[in-house]
Amino acid sequence: MRKSLWLAVLVLVVAMPAMAADHPQKPGKWQIKMQMDIPGMPMKMPPFTHTMCITEEDLKDPQKAVPGDPKQQCNVGDYKIDGQTVSWTVDCPKQKAKGEGKITFADDSFDGELHMTIEEREMTTKYSGKWLGACDK
C-alpha cells in the first residue's frame, strides 16, 4: 500500500508539468481528479481528487513546482507546448520510473494521460482538472 501511495503522489507531481511561461493553464485553485490503472493489480485503484493552488510562479518552472525531498524528485524533459496541448517525459532515477504524459487545456479545464513504467510495472493514469477560481489567501 505504501508504494501505491507513492504512485499517487508521483502522479500529482507529474500532472503539474503545466508549468512554463507560455503555458495554456491559468493560475488559481484547481481541482484535479485522477484514475490509475495498473494491469495485474488484484483490484482497481479508486479515483483520487486533490485541490491545489497553482501560482504564476509555479507556471514558470516545472522542476520548482515539484514538492518533496529533492533526492526523490523526478526530472521533466522533452517539454513541449503545441497550442493548448502540453507533453513531456519524466525520469525518476531513484524510483526506477520513466514515462510520458500529455495534457490538453480548455479555458477552465484540462484532460490528460500519463503512461509510466515503474520497476518494470506499467501504469496509466487519466486525469482531469477544473479551475475553481482564485487561490484562497
Describe the protein.
With 137 residues, this protein is mainly beta. The chain has one domain (2-133). Helices cover 9% and strands 47% of the residues. It is built from 1 helix and 7 strands. It is globular and about 40 Å long.
Furnish the topology, listing elements before pairings.
Blueprint: H1 2-14, E1 28-37, E2 48-54, E3 75-82, E4 85-92, E5 97-105, E6 109-118, E7 121-133
Antiparallel strand pairs: 1-2, 1-7, 3-4, 4-5, 5-6, 6-7
Kindly summarize this structure in a few lines.
With 137 residues, this protein is mainly β. It has one helix spanning 2-14, and strands at 28-37, 48-54, 75-82, 85-92, 97-105, 109-118, 121-133.
Features:
1 helix, 137 residues, globular, 7 strands, 7-stranded antiparallel beta sheet, single chain, mainly beta
CA gyration radius, whole angstroms = 14 Å
Note the main sheet.
7 strands, antiparallel
What is the H/E order? HEEEEEEE
Fraction in helix: under 10%
Strand order within the widest sheet?
2-1-7-6-5-4-3
How confident overall, as mean pLDDT?
Answer: 76
Tell me the number of strands: 7
Note the gap between the termini. Answer: 34 Å
Our count of domains comes out at 1
Class computed from helices, strands and strand pairing:
mainly beta
Q: How many helices in DSSP terms? A: 1
**Outline, from the CA principal axes?**
globular
How large is the share of residues in beta strands? over 45%
Low-confidence stretches: 1-16
